[in-house]
């Protein structure tokens, strides 16, 4: 069922599909007439525990009936609990809570500039990656590679140095060609850019950290999409021995509740002081309790192990079904890219998946189907996902 209106009061920043969902449960979304859709997108990697997880729902209901907001002018017990849990999971020292991934990345980029200020720099620069995406606030969109996202906003392009993702030599070269570099910011896996992984895998992160250490730069990781169990580790960089100075996350952090986080250690640990940054809503009692609940579920159950098992199962079976058509897969855990032949017209594929297969997917990087199912996807649901997507792609490439 779609929402029809002669005039919408919503700014046209999106072009939504002509369908509206009235409820969700686990891996499924339902329209008002109770038609089920298998959700392999989870709100773009947000509902990692599935829709309306009973323990998350209970935490929201209980806290909403107790205390929602006080502001950060007061100590917040649940914020302290959530901060300790998240920093423990990440191996970080402290956290600033924001409301989104873009805000978390904005905080990280402000830190990079402050780090340069403390060094006496007049024009600090940050190395970022081609095909990256970091958000839509002014600093984060300036760091983002997509020119369409930056167009018309007088972005701060001179403050960023773009290098190919996965190319450590390009970072080393930038160190010799540019002055006043303060940090490197990258995603362990590029989500919006097409589910791109470095050719050296996660060891690339260790290589980047080594260059940062050598040059006294901040090593900053954007795990807005890859964090919170999405790849089978709590954070994707934990597939390696790399340890960032700054780590951002959001999306799955609140399983649908809007909250983001910017964590620090090492060189970044003492950059922010009283008055350096702030957020009226960041780390409310309600949001913080949700974060703590998600942490408890991820750390005390086998959900992340399930993400690895089912993710591998999905990739292996899709490869077997589709390799003869020139289709391949890549990714980790429940962050999967199904790579179609480059010439494939994918402009209608998302709509066709919804209409013909009752399947919710996304296409990124022009010809990569992005799958971001719940981490706790059941085997029977994995089988349905494989069957529906295989049929869709075979019909498209026939």
UniProtKB/TrEMBL annotation:
Gene3D superfamilies on file: Aspartate Aminotransferase, domain 1 (3.90.1150.10), Type I PLP-dependent aspartate aminotransferase-like (Major domain) (3.40.640.10)
EC assignment: 2.6.1.11
Cofactor section: pyridoxal 5'-phosphate
Keyword terms: Amino-acid biosynthesis, Aminotransferase, Arginine biosynthesis, Cytoplasm, Pyridoxal phosphate, Transferase
Pfam families, sorted: Aminotran_3
GO cellular component annotations of the record: cytoplasm
Binding positions (N(2)-acetyl-L-ornithine): 136, 279
Modified residues (N6-(pyridoxal phosphate)lysine): 251
Residues at which pyridoxal 5'-phosphate binds: 101-102, 133, 222-225, 280
InterPro entries referenced in this protein's UniProt entry, alphabetically: AcOrn/SuccOrn_fam, Aminotrans_3, Aminotrans_3_PPA_site, Class-III_PLP-dep_AT, PyrdxlP-dep_Trfase, PyrdxlP-dep_Trfase_major, PyrdxlP-dep_Trfase_small
CDD domains for the chain: OAT_like (cd00610)
Gene Ontology biological-process annotations: L-arginine biosynthetic process
PROSITE patterns: AA_TRANSFER_CLASS_3
Subcellular location: Cytoplasm
Pathway listed: Amino-acid biosynthesis; L-arginine biosynthesis; N(2)-acetyl-L-ornithine from L-glutamate: step 4/4
Miscellaneous remark of the record: May also have succinyldiaminopimelate aminotransferase activity, thus carrying out the corresponding step in lysine biosynthesis.
Protein family per UniProt: Belongs to the class-III pyridoxal-phosphate-dependent aminotransferase family. ArgD subfamily.
Name this polypeptide is given: Acetylornithine aminotransferase
Gene this protein is translated from: argD
